[in-house]
Specification:
about 280 residues; alpha+beta; 9 helices; 10 strands; about 25% strand; elongated
Length: about 280
């Protein structure tokens, strides 16, 4: 997963069972909820963090309440406010690597280990804010999605996929992968297709996509934002791994609308869910 190293102002945890929190709340969560991608540098800005220690200190000097708090010695009130070296990932999580000191660079060395990791939903909830994307309803691992498709116009279907009239599963599979099951993004998004199996009857296709989800949080976030761009609700997240796989390789990609290529997607399901009917907008 992509990341950016920098400095972030934190209120550090004071006891067992507690978690640290960013001193300042995230700046503009709405923009995260409607953007189709968010880089580590974007998250740094969201958290008022910086790759330049002096710039962060300048930000602190402009916050009168913070200056007063630091002058009064916050440790007397059970607070430890500190600038931390941090690695911010493209899913919004923050890994902390100790307090910043003069002369220490922001860049984290390969042999360093974080002292604390904060997930994006915890960062937002600590400030009574709703995270832009809810955490995933599935875990990393190997998951499958079965899609049932009806051929509504055989001539259109054959023409679009370049198939002969007597096509079978063997000849249809590579054409479907090329012209229907394209990934929604060329960037790394936390999952990869492992296998596609196709069953063919006279007017029906059953496509089984098996994918390896390598990073459930990143995959969930990327699919949620892509689906929102395609017309889903602003708080949409996939209900299951199968839903996410369907959207990644069939629902949110740039392949033509099924009704323009002689197809109708009837439903889909995975190994842990009921069938999903295609939503209408």
């Amino acid at each position: 997963m992509k990341y950016a190293d920098g400095f972030v102002l934190m209120k550090l945890a004071q006891g067992a069972g507690q978690a640290s929190r960013t001193y300042w709340p995230p700046q503009d969560s709405l923009s995260l909820g409607i953007s189709d991608a968010f880089s580590p540098e974007d998250w740094l800005e969201e958290y008022t963090a910086s790759t330049d220690l002096s710039l962060l200190i300048d930000e602190m000097r402009e916050d009168k309440d913070l200056v007063t708090t630091l002058r009064d010695d916050p440790k007397r009130y059970g607070q430890d406010i500190a600038i931390m070296r941090a690695r911010v990932y493209e899913d919004g999580s923050i890994a902390l690597y100790g307090k910043a000191r003069k002369g220490i660079e922001a860049a984290i060395a390969a042999d360093e280990r974080p002292c604390e990791i904060l997930q994006v939903e915890n960062i937002f909830s600590a400030h009574s804010m709703t995270p832009p994307v809810a955490p995933p309803n599935f875990e990393a691992g190997r998951h499958s999605c079965e899609i049932k498709i009806r051929i509504t116009d055989r001539a259109e279907f054959l023409e679009h996929f370049g198939l002969p009239k007597d096509f079978d599963a063997e000849t249809a599979t590579p054409q479907l992968k090329m012209f229907l099951l394209e990934p929604f993004s060329a960037e790394e998004f936390g999952a990869r297709m492992e296998d596609v199996q196709v069953e063919v009857t006279k007017r029906k296709l059953k496509i089984s996509i098996t994918a390896e989800i390598t990073d459930a949080r990143l995959f969930n976030q990327r699919i949620s934002l892509a689906a929102r761009q395609c017309g889903f609700d602003d708080d949409y997240v996939p209900e299951t791994a199968g839903d996410a796989i369907f959207e990644a390789w069939c629902g949110c990609n740039e392949s033509p609308s099924p009704d323009t290529i002689g197809l109708e997607i009837e439903n889909w399901r995975d190994d842990s869910a009921e069938e999903r009917l295609v939503p209408s907008f």
